[in-house]
Queue: 4 jobs
Job 1
Amino acid sequence: MGRLKGLFFLLCAFSLAGTSVIAARFFHDGPGAFTVTGASLLLTLLILLPFGWRELAAAVRRLRAKDWVLLSCQALFGIFLFRMFLLYGLARTSAGEAGILTGATPAVTALLAMLLLKETMDRTALLGILSTAIGIILLQKLPVSGLESTFSMSHFTGNVLVLCAALSESLFNIFSRSAAVNAEAAQREPIHPIAQTALVSAMALALCLIPSLPEHPVSSLAAMGWQKWLALVWYGPVVTALAFICWYAGIKRCRAQTAAALSGMMPFTALLLSVAILGEHAGWQQWAGGGLVVLGIVLIGGNQRPGVKTRRAERLLDKKREAAT
């Protein structure tokens, strides 16, 4: 039952995350990236604090130094850098392509696990990474079979920035899962999802304050129309608060590979909504590239066999639970 709840929460989290690309697109000619991020996080905290102040106070009393470090890394990579790269990237590329490119996160996560954590990778995962790489190349609109190229350096730069956002998201996945595993191994009660979301949002907001000053946040926000305000509300309380709460509730019940498989909802949601809401055109190269990226996600996330270290850790936790009962 717990795993089914985890799957449901992760499915909701990634579906909402896919809409973030659409919401961010409304700010390409509005306030600066730091202002948009800071304002959305402030709205998030205004919604969360009245409902979760007790959980937040209890969590702060239990946190250790290592917990604060992991939360700071989640704020830096999962919110601050992810949104900076995404917002600057969307000024140069389409929302549909940006959504698909963020779907490269599982491939980036697998590579980081192999390079940094020395984890092994089977042929299926390698094939998934290759599929993702080919899909990303197709999304650059390079000339194919003698067709006229629509490649531009600005478009390429935008896609690179979005890939940097995917890298930031991958690091966030690693840090958040590490925090959950550490709490379980120490047999400590995990941080409540609302409290964890509030702490990470507050830290990311602090990172935005000084960089937003040159963007004249008060005047730029006051000049926004109702559509941008609606997008800001969605970008904050809905995408940030609700999606992160679902993410933290799901990742403590499911392995990272399961989350990687479900992350295919993010590029699918972004591509479909970019066509339906923003009226963007997706050519055959974009659909083919998106299909290959999603295929890579399935191949990487479908590899559910835990490694040797994971199996040992699971057996150790089982023994601790038996001893406790």
Note: The radius of gyration is 20 Å.
Job 2
Amino acid sequence: MELFLQQTVDGLASGAVYGAFALALVLIHRATHIVNFGQGEMATFTVYVAWQLAEWGLPLWLALAAGAALAFVLGVAVFRAVVRPVSRAPVETVVVVTLGLFLLFDALSLWLWGSDQRAFPSVFPDHGWTVGGVRLTAAMLGVLAVLGALAIVLGALFRYTRFGLAMRASAAEREKSVLVGIRVETMLMFGWGLAAVVGFLAAALVAPRLFLSPVMMAPVLIYALASATLGGWDSPVGAVLGGLLIGVAESVGAAFLSFIGAELRLAIPIAVTLAILFIRPAGLFGKQGVVRV
């Protein structure tokens, strides 16, 4: 029983990172109906910038604040310069463009900082506690707290502020929003900038658990895509809960299914996602579409 509880807690910590990154993907998809495959590499680039500032002597919290600000500006710039011109192009074109963003920022990080892995400082202390035979660490609880705070802040923004309501309207009814005076392009730019900040936070949380490298977010992107698919691509809440479910399923499954090694851990969340989609194709919290023929 203690092993099960420990794996569940560990899975929740990993799932919080998956959920945060899936939330960034869902924010962009809701606003522009685009899946940004370059989101992880953009986040990695901004985390590298924060790491470099910390190496130059800037306090860690200031370096992270500067990285978040850069992430917002980068998200806005990418939307204006790259995504907006192809937003009404065929979906195949948009996929190729976002894959191009993946390669561009991966190459940029590799060119500026090389391929060597680097240690990224954790914002949480190294303390830990044992409760009922389950090991809890400050980093683990901190990651869950960040995800919870992020979900609450974004939920309040979208539900209770005029700006958030304008963003939701722009995403749902772009043409009609213009008629009531909403500056849709501004809302979409802000959405991409906000998603880039959320992606940066996810990358900054995962970097101390791994090592900072140009490709560190590539596997996280796969888990985040599975999380968003599981929760539903039009549901931020679904993205968060989907990430937590994926993290727990991976951790518990790898511990109790002895025939699954490290190489097949990824098969567990994929199998869980497929099983859910067979029952509910739109995801756990996605809206079912109705098409007339």
Note: The first helix runs from residue 2 to 32.
Job 3
Amino acid sequence: MSVREHGSSEKVVMYFGLFASSSCCALGYPCSDETLVLLAFRATCAGYFICNLVGLLLGACETSHHILRAGLLINSLSSWLVSAYWCVGFGEWCILMLCEHAFVAFGTMVLVHSNVHLHLMFTAAGSLVCYLARRQAAAQSYELGKFWVAGTVTVVLILVGGILYSGHSSIAFLQRKLALVSSLVTVSEKELVSVDSTLHTPPNGMRRSSPGTPTSTDVDGLELEECIGAGSFGKVYSATYLGKRAAVKIMSWEGEQLKRIDPLREAKLCLRMVHPNLVQAFDFIHRDSSSEVLAKRSWNEIWIIQEWCDRGTLCKYCNTPRFDETGLRQVKSIMLDVAKACEYLTLLTTA
């Protein structure tokens, strides 16, 4: 049986790990005159180096997964040791720990994909306790420590930067989240009012403040519940439709707000799609307020009532590590279902 290779992003992170661990091993640790402390520090660096090297050589398997996790834990022990014999200032320690924890978070996301918060708590708690219980260092160690901190922070920043540009899906997802937060912080007051009026959650059984918006009482047998997701111009609610669980996708826009998307066409197309591998749509409602005399602005809204799907997302399912033949068969089954659905959509759009 052939050994599966790691993805390109995982390889990049392991290569940077080899560089960082060997660099720190060469730098040593100047904050203690005890030989055992220096040996312990270099042993942790060597341990992390070996875990990355073995994980790289073994390829993507369960054993490699456990070895890489052990390497991250050894790296955390290294930060404990550094904190216990710290000889420079508190500010320098905070900078180094911020870099170290950024590496722990990103490295765990890329290499082992799970328990990121536990790795962070393990590193942070131990480092803080060791720092509070640290020994007093000599003045000579303090002078050497300043140069050591500069070199170590540089190495760790190179490591973190390499992980950020590794192209891994989890890092890309995090970057998109940060970009979204940044866009929300810089949004203007006019844009904020527009978004709020578009995406405001309607109270169950009551009319929203926006003109021309249908309510749950407008549709026979439909009862809205909580919001379970949101996008750029709409939200998805859980609901009860004719006594059964359903999902309601609500898209709202004003005037010519939508240029490239036609929600009405999407709703009609959803009703035409009937396939076991596609989400089934039951009905849709379109409300246009431009013809209403009392409406001060043109308001459009589409409600698409769809099948309720509560078994999670494909992204979350795929992020769970699988190393046996059962996982491979599951992947083949999923891809076959996706291919069948795509074939159906191709025939539907060309008919």
Note: Confidence is low (pLDDT under 50) at residues 198-217, 291-296.
Job 4
Amino acid sequence: MWLITVIPRVFQFLFAIIVLGLSVSLAKGQVIGSVPATTGYGSFTGGLGILAAIVGFAALLTDFLEGIISWAIDGLACVAFLAGGIAFAVGLRGTDCSDINTTWNNAILSGGCDANGCDYFGGDIDHIEQTVKSRCTSAKADAAFMFLGFIFCMFVIAGSMFFSQNKRNRSGAVV
């Protein structure tokens, strides 16, 4: 029964690390202007997911965090993963990573550069296309891992509630 919460919790932790890493990587690639809010929110989501997983692991070992506290943090992480995934999906709508025409004007992908070009990317059109294509692939993966994080957060909450209810039923039985 314990594995019902541990396995999804491990995946929640891994996906949160991936989301944080991809979002930070996209933020570091912002060469002009400030980082788009979507990318910053992705970093927040990854960090919150890591925190929720750590609290969840601690809740498996202590009765103090088990129940409403871990459910509330997992619920918050669940909503954050879903909102982040939707924000990235909306921000990336209509982009085709292999078509520079659909990616260059996207604020998440262009790194702050505009239609006039960007000296930071070196001016070589092939290098620019490869950089933007790489950022596009990372952003789409970030969105996918946020949705996966949401799904596993749901599994974690359901498993935790089931495990908690089952634990209460066993402790209340008369022997």
Note: The chain is about 70% helix and 0% strand.
